[in-house]
Amino acid sequence: MFRKLLIAGVMTSALAVSFNQAQAADYTLRFSHQWPPVAGMQKDLFQVWADTIAKESDGRIEVEMYPSATLAAPPAQYEAVEDGIADVAAAIQGYTANRFPLTQVVELPGLIKNAAHGSCIIQSLYDEGLISGEYKGTRPLFLFTHGQGLLHTGDKLIATPDDLTGLRIRRPTSVVANILEAAGAQPLGMPAPESYQAMQLEVIDGVALPWEGALAFRLNELAKAHTSVGDLYTLSFLVTMNEDSFEDLPEDLQDVITKNSGMAWSEKAGNLFDALDAKGLKQAQDAGHTFLTVEGGVDNPAWKPVLDKATETYLADLESRGLPARKVYARAKELAATCK
């Protein structure tokens, strides 16, 4: 009899624990992004953030991950947060044309050394209020950049801008499109996840991506020639949250979100991007690909006039629209000298 009561008690306790665990989350946040489930950005950044939120909220917040653009298309990630389709998303500012023109100043050539450096610059610009006005529709948690962008082509190295003449190159944003166009290429806009099929079907001749992107989206399987022109360009990202979703949380849980925002997480993102860049490069090296590092990078005599013109064209266009592009650019250059 005692044994039956003991077993019944154990089962009741187990069921109670199971029920309490299932009911533990008071709030569920849907986190959307474009990276595959196996990508480093998902496993080592976004999921780590989600796990941190769950732990520090004592399980009262659960974060459901929606990778591979399953909740919203890559260009619609930011709008998905605005509209409440997602509670949190990792978005690429340049995928939403003309929405974040001052933020995209960081994409211009010659500013960043690597992703950690670029992330410090962009997060500082936001924290100082120079670009924060572009984000009134959501609540940004942290901003970051990828590392230096490269040109990955089938088998042709790009020693000078003339080598780009007529090549169809996937470009991530309009800023990068202007750079490629000035060099004589035919830029074609598409999100990174679409690049593999486009190159496989020979719709494009190559892609502009960091090494992380070549790794995450399997471009190293198709692109065998890789050209680095130093900081040819970078790309800006942010993890942002729906305003109502944040306001619906009690104050103590809002504090958990706020604590896991800002420069500390920007640094984590930048450091991870740099680690993934190294991994993507090694993958291509192990596969016996060909590489070219342009001497002098963006200051190379063949490249500098083209890149300087692209930079000036972008800044002048924003200024003509009444935006303080030169002020933001000047501050970004100052930050580039102090960020590590």
UniProtKB/TrEMBL annotation:
<dbReference type="Pfam" id="PF03480">
    <property type="entry name" value="DctP"/>
</dbReference>
<keyword id="KW-0732">Signal</keyword>
<feature type="signal peptide">
    <location>
        <begin position="1"/>
        <end position="24"/>
    </location>
</feature>
<protein>
    <submittedName>
        <fullName>C4-dicarboxylate ABC transporter substrate-binding protein</fullName>
    </submittedName>
</protein>
<dbReference type="InterPro" id="IPR018389">
    <property type="entry name" value="DctP_fam"/>
</dbReference>
<dbReference type="InterPro" id="IPR038404">
    <property type="entry name" value="TRAP_DctP_sf"/>
</dbReference>
